[in-house]
Amino acid sequence: MSDLFLSQLEQNKPVRLEKNGQSICVARIGHEVFAIGDTCTHSDASLSEGDITGTRIECWLHGAEFDLRTGVALTLPAVEPVKSYPVHIVADSITIEI
Ligand code: FES
To answer: pTM for this one?
Structure first.
């Protein structure tokens, strides 16, 4: 069963998805879709409200950047990574593996 449809996702406009009790930030970049934990590891801010540059997403609250491909924290003040979830795309259908 699909979690989202590719046609619903605008380029570089992340969305928040709730699945199995997890908040997930989903972002489409080109033909790829990435899914990482939505809660910034610095404090309690939603990464899906941040801005995307390349494959980085910037937390809107204090500016930490995370790699959308891996969840790794790239800049302070965050140091811990967020989770990274495998994404499966079949035609228009997107499934995120929890
Ligand atoms: S809450 Fe994200 S950088 Fe502070």
So the answer is: 0.96
